[in-house]
Design goal:
mainly alpha, 2 strands, two-stranded antiparallel sheet, 3 helices
């Protein structure tokens, strides 16, 4: 797994709310997963925007988070 996909999964997981069924197993609905993805995308877009506002579009962080954004969209 590449570092961008790992970061994408980590961010989405941070916004994931798990529910528990009667047997104690965790689950998440598709709607909850999509909401977690949207939250993660908002964070990444804010990071990218802040880099653009400071005129650092071509640095490593900008490229890194653009890749992470693409991976979040694939999840």
């Amino acid at each position: 797994m590449n570092k961008y996909k790992e970061e994408a999964q980590r961010l989405v997981f941070k916004f994931t709310v798990f529910s528990y069924d009667v047997n104690g197993f965790k689950y998440i609905t598709e709607l909850e997963h999509e909401a977690a993805k949207r939250c993660a995308l908002i964070c990444v877009e804010q990071i990218i925007l802040s880099h653009q506002q400071w005129g650092t579009e071509q640095d490593e962080w900008f490229d890194y988070y653009n890749e992470v954004k693409q991976e979040i969209n694939k999840l």
